[in-house]
């Protein structure tokens, strides 16, 4: 398969995958949001309808309470007798009936009636006579059992209405005075549903506190109401006659009625139609765009390769005049420049091959001559040490031993990690050399807690800091300097401080000391030494132990400098060695082996 075809198929596959995956994810998220929003809106609608039912029934209940406790009603039911003063305008009977008319609402109520214990009955309705209810005594008994509480009885099967009854009691003696009854029209409850926009194909069912239907059609859902509607509010999916529905219900805390909304899935799917159409159109456009982009990208990427292949074929046949366009600014342009330059130089290179081979042989010979075995240097220093000892030059012996130790540890790659105790031995060798060099121009004080002697640290961690202290105190100070190396454990942390009584440094220099060598702030340090050794130690400690560890620098002009090493106490030995070996492998790349301190 040619590169053009590979590029075309690769680009097409990538763009198609991106289009399909992004489109699928977008559709999934958007459809989920729309479905959730639809269910939430339905829940709010059902809750609103349920609250409207409660408000309606509270209004009816309040009217019954008003009548039951009204003084006129109480007086009439206590003192009124059948046949007395019923036609007088100010008679108790007429007053009671006027109150009933005031409370009566022909839109909401079918009738209103009071059955007095005094043998009188009081009736109010748009009809001319009281209805003959076959279950009147049953309704009275229900009211008496509730002892004054209002009871709503589902009497749809008998009278076609809801019957609301209440026992009227004497507010002083609490003796029963009669029963108050009113019939609630179902049409009033239906109007409450019609005032709320539910869904064109959605249904609402209203059940009473005994799960009997008040409004709506009987179905499998209403037959299993005792098992399905056990919470105060909830939503779930349910199949009715094989069709899936989303069922949302709310139970009234006031009446115990259950307002149930039934929304078919096809109604919910209607809201997804614009999204489905948009997704399909976007997918088709994405495929077409993918084809176009794949062809264009493949053409522009393969065309310069084709030109290069043609030029190489000519060049392979000995045509050294072939050239490629160099106007391109991308990698192909750079390749063409190299190709053209290579053709111009190829003849010279052919002539220089023989000379290059001779030169390589000579360089190899010189390189072999320049190689010196480190063991030879150690043996030579041991020989000098032996000769000095033979002559009784103990100072020279000590100096040669110190130099030999430092040379060995600098060259050796066998150990990447030392204990603090071993590191201090090499620090003391270094200080011996420097004290000999500077003629005791400084004093050193060691204050190391024994419990951190076996603490592991990268080799050459303390020595660069001691060297830095000498450079910035002994070399630049005219007075005798004092160096202090302190170390102790502070909880889970080991702190080692190298301080001097030198000239100190400015705040700008102190902040830039631990910055990356190539940064602008680092380049502005006005000192003979760049402090790269300090930076290298800081970076090694951070890599080895983590970001919370490393060096901290404190210094003020004229007051000396203190550099503190912060490392964890007794980190896992295996982990320290593993990180140190990794650090040793990458150290030349990161520039950790800097001779400057």
UniProtKB/TrEMBL annotation:
Task: Name the predominant localization.
Answer: membrane
Which stretches make up the HAMP domain?
Answer: 299-351
Q: Which UniProt keywords apply?
A: Kinase, Membrane, Phosphoprotein, Transferase, Transmembrane, Transmembrane helix, Two-component regulatory system
- Residue ranges spanning the membrane: these are 280-302
What are the subcellular locations of this protein?
Membrane
Q: What is its EC number?
A: 2.7.13.3
Give residue ranges for domain Histidine kinase: 462-571
A GO molecular function annotation here is: protein histidine kinase activity
Q: Which catalysed reactions does the entry list for this protein?
A: ATP + protein L-histidine = ADP + protein N-phospho-L-histidine
Q: State the InterPro entries in the record.
A: Bact_2-comp_sensor_kinase, HAMP_dom, HATPase_C_sf, HATPase_dom, His_kinase_dom, Sig_transdc_His_kin-like_C, Sig_transdc_His_kin_internal
Question: Is Phosphoprotein given among the entry's keywords?
Answer: yes
Question: Could you tell me which Pfam families the record lists for this protein?
Answer: HAMP, HATPase_c, His_kinase
Can you name this protein? histidine kinase
